[in-house]
Structures are given as structure tokens and as C-alpha cells.
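User: Predict the structure for this protein chain, please.
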Amino acid sequence: MKKFILSIIIFMMLIPFVVNAEICDTDKITISSITTESKSDNVEELDETKVNDKAINLNLSMSEVGDKINYKIVVKNDSNEDYELDKKSFNLSSNYIEYTLESEDNTNIVKANSSKVVYLKVNYVNEVPNDVFESGVYNDNKNMTINLSNNDTIGNLNAIKNPNTGVQSYILTLFIILLIIISAYGLLRKRKYAKFIILIVGSVIIIPVSVCALCKCEIDINSSIVINQKKLTGTIYRWNMAPLKVGDIISVKLVDKYIIADGLKHHAQLFDSEEDCERSRTSLFYGGLPSSYTCQYKKTNIGGGGDFTFDSSEINMNYYLKHIVVNGVVTESFVCFKTDKEHCLKGGDNGEAYNSNIGVMREYQTFLNIPTDNGANPTCRYSATESVCYASSIGGYRYMTISSDGVIAIGSWDGVQCGISADSHSYCYEMPS
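Assistant: Here is the predicted structure, written as C-alpha cells:
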């Protein structure tokens, strides 16, 4: 019998004696509003930012590092409990977008029957690599959660909190503890049980006698951000067969390819494998290329007109193509050559640059020391509609022709040429000799 009573006493000791009976109603935590405080010019809200119950849905578009948008969120607490906003729960990892959460008063407590303002900041901090974009777009989609909770303490006498039972809880709890101790002493007062009595008393002290119910709710933020590939503005140079024209779009992308090349002089076709490249290099069309042409691996900077560079010194050719690009669109095209400086002929502009191109041709004539209209070779001839220079000096036959309809051609009789057609298509190529 004594063993049975002892088992009951020990079992009672393991049960928390006071439970906070307050009902946990998370519906009393709401998002009363979300508004856009500020944003960069490049940031576009593709859909209106909406609140669905406790979920915020963001649908944005960004394009440049430094783009950002700030939201003002009002969290309303209609309960009788204070809630703590757990910033540590707002732990979002993104390679390119940074999310931060700040409160208006720099505290994390949403007091009972009140509202709190928090700010959500979304920043484009790390540039998306060119080779990550798909068709000029990268989608950065993230889901995150903000946790709010009330007092989650599970405590002993010093932590008892029950607004519904008040002082009676303390009296009842003390009475139960005292009853357990007296009963245990009555049953186990023999000397041989003294140590066991001490163990029981110690257990009563350390085992929780109250549990405050934990109320926890979550605010979900579903973020969908479209990052657009940055539109190129600047000058690019190239030497390939791609027929790029004014109005074409340059979408920069780095890709792994193989090319048939001699230094920076190469054909426009790109191959996915070295085997495909070798098969084409020895084919009927390419078979006549000099032996210096080989298949080479290249991390290629691809645009609308094949691969290109931003530095003309990387083009190891006597002449090359130059394009002016504004917001990703080719606006002007030139054929260029170098002496002690760069000289460029503008083409494909309905002949508007014809007179200035004649000036460039005269520089070309001086550079090669060609006489004017001598009826022989070499010579330069000028007219109101078409002008031409050709010479058999400096590395073989070389020539330049320009016309009033915007056609430009400069090259050598061995098949190496760069040109621009009347409709602004530009190209460079080297045919097998």
C-alpha cells in the first residue's frame, strides 16, 4: 500500500500544477496596412503589393545593383498580451537580393491593444552574372517568415503568471506542495529513507509548477523579383561575320564555346564541343583556311552580333567594326582602322556621313601614301556618289570604298574585309585563299 501511495505522489510531482488558462487567439494579430515608402527609378511593382490574411505578396522588377524599395508595414495587436517580433526568424539568404526588417522605435515588442510600424527593405546588392540570365531575365523568388510570440516562459513559483486565477493560484500551489512534503515524510520518516525525502523535496523545488501557454503566429512574405539583364550602353568592337545592324539588340551573355580562330581573328560560327569545331574546320567550306587557324575554347561574350570586346586594342586586325550601343540597342556602326590613332567610317546612315567619310578616306590615302586619280595603281578617286582608294603597298593590295548610300568596304584582295551595307548590316570576314 505504501508503495502504491508513493507512486501516486511521485506522479503528481511530475505534473505542472498551474496552467495559464488564457485562450491563445492569433487572429487578433493582423497586418492592417502595407505601403511603399520609397523606391529607385528602376524598380517596378509588377503587381500591386497585397496582404492576404497574414501573408504579404511582393512582385517586383529590378535591373541594376543599388535598386531598392522600402515598405512600411503596420502590425496590429488586438489581444491582451504583448507579442515579440523575432527578427532572428527573419533569416533569408539570397545571392543577389538583401532583405532587412527594422522597427520604427527600434524595439521588437508589439504591445497589447496597439499597433507597431516595421519597415521592410529590399535591396539589389550583388550583380547577377551574365551567364545566369535566361533570355535576359533572372527570377529571384524567396519565401520568408516573421515569427511573433507572447511570453513563452515555463517557470516555477517565481514565474507563475495567470491573470484569471490571481493570488488563489499561489495559495493553492503552496498548499499542494506542502501536502506532498508532509505525506512523503509520514510515509518515509524512517531513517533509512532520509536521503529519499531529500530527493523528493529537491525535485519539488526544480520541477515546474506552472506553464504559461505559448501563443505564436507567423507573418509570411512571398517575394518574386524579376531581375532584368542590365542594358548595355557604351562602345563595343568586333571582328566576325555576324550581320549586326542598327536597331539590333545587344544582350550580353557569357557562354562556353569553341571557335575556329587565329588569335582574335575568327569566324562567327560557335561550336558546343571541340569535336564539332574540328569537324567543321576540316570541312569543304573551312578546309582552305591557313594552318594557323585552330579550334580554340573561349568563354565568349555573346551579343546580338556575335562575340565582342569593349577594348579595340584586343582586336588584332588592321580594321574592325565599332558600334555605339544605347540601352542595349545599336544606334551607330563604323568600320575602323588605326594609324597613330583610330579612324572610323560611318555606314548605313543613308549617306549622311558621306562627306565626313571622304575626310577619313583622305587620312587613309595619306597613311598609305597613295596618289590621287592618276589613272593607274595605286590611286584614289573621289566623286559625289562614290569614292575609292586602292594600293599595292603595306602588306599586299588594300582598298577602301565609300558611297553616298551608306555603303562602306575596307579590306585586302586576299578576302579579308569589313563592311557596312546600305541597310546598315555590318560584318567582317576572311575567306579561304
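The longest helix spans residues 167-187.
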